[in-house]
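User: Hey, my collaborator sent me this sequence without any context and asked if I could get a structure. I don't really work with proteins. Can you help?
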Amino acid sequence: MFLFTIVMCVFYTVTNAASSSSGTCYVPSDQQWLVRGLQTQLENWASLQIKPDPSVLIALTLAEDHSLSVITQLVRQIKETAGTEMTSGKVALYVLALRSSCQNPANVSTPEKHVNLVQVLEEKTKEEITHIGTTGTPKTTYYQLALDTLALCVEKSPELEIAATTLAKAAQDNRFQFDGRYSVDTGAVASLALFCVYEGRSSSQSQITEALKHTIEQILNKQQDNGLLGNIYSTGLAMQALSVTSEFQSANAWNCSKTLNEVLQKIIEGAFSTPAATSQILPSLVGKTYLDVRSPICNSETVTVQYKVINKLIGSYFEHSITVKVPKGSVLLAVLKAAQQLNASEFSFETEETSWGPMVTSINGLRGSTDEKTYWQFLSGKTPLEQGVGSYKPRDNELIVAIFSTY
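Assistant: No problem. I've predicted the 3D structure and written it out in structure-token form, which is a compact way to encode the shape of the chain:
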């Protein structure tokens, strides 16, 4: 079925965008284009990076229909740069990033080296705790110690207990300060770490519980009138923390929908213009948290799709074909992204958002026109697709054809 609609101007005020139920909220379907746009932007940044950012890998693996080629590139870069010279917090992020992408951080192997990152993390966390014992402060920061504790919990490390009790004591002693103000980022990651420990039923359960109550209260105290938690850049991590700790919050203490509405408006205003900022907000927008790296969908199955683009209608005719692999269950949009990653000169494309989801408006620089009544039609073999690129899921060894057509 050919779907062609007039796309509304994107620069409008988001109102009532967040739907809520039972203390949770999510981005509704007619605003998902904002999330997809952030994800595409993050994938584009990642494909150009020489030095990998583990936070970017975590965010993309938690999101659906990510680019397999970008994930593969990031995993390779993470493995190649893993080592003992990093700070404890960076090691923790590497551990979480590898675990999120179904890799074993205790066995990181490349042709040049072999590293047990979990062991490295345990040693560096001990250094942080020893430094607290002698100086009263960590070797780096409490933010990094919170990351350490979270990663140790995800890996079920025997060193978790002392890290958790140290972090819990720091939380209760109001040590999460930065420039004299409470650090929402530190409190949020600490809450995720302590909640992970809490779910595992630690022997220090009462201390963990009290620390969680205190930390969540501190985050909620930083809730602004517009719904942001701290500032726009700390809000993503804070949303993760608050979304899993409702039992430690009083009724209506957090207006999740209000927070999400403000975040969506900030996306339109271009607030998330760096990989770091985008990677922190994306997990919350897809309904995930860093705790979800404990159970990643490790689906090694892929489908092979032959993708062909044909223009025999106007201008310089062309016909290009490419074969790509995408994770099983991916939508057609993932196929187009994979083809573009492999050969942007022939398979570049653009989309516009419609009420039915993304619509391909241009392929290989050739754009459809309402004046000339031209558009890109997608077929499975010779059969026109009845779903859009954001919904249709190609089968293994299927031929997908995009033909520049008239209506």
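In plain terms: Residues 333 and 389 are 5 Å apart (CA to CA). You can pass these tokens on to your collaborator as they are.
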